[in-house]
Amino acid sequence: MPIVVDIDVMLARRKMSVGELADRVGITPANLAVLKNGRAKAVRFTTLAALCEVLECQPGDLLRWETGTPAETVDSGTASAGPGS
Questions:
Q1: For residue 10, what is the domain's CATH number?
Q2: What Å distances lie between residue 55 and 13, 25, 32, 59, CA to CA?
């Protein structure tokens, strides 16, 4: 996945634990760990906004696109458009 999650960086800068961040954001430590370790497939904007509010940062401080990692995409030349195509 070409999206890299840098929550660890902001936690270190804010001298905050994962448990404290999870409590303040209102998500479980397990769900925060999934996001933090780059295993999440999606993140709600409300969760991203809460993370930014608590960590006093911008979304770009938490998420970045890394060019060297292949994207998980479907080749449009071979994908079916669905019924009737």
A1: 1.10.260.40
A2: 9, 10, 14, 10
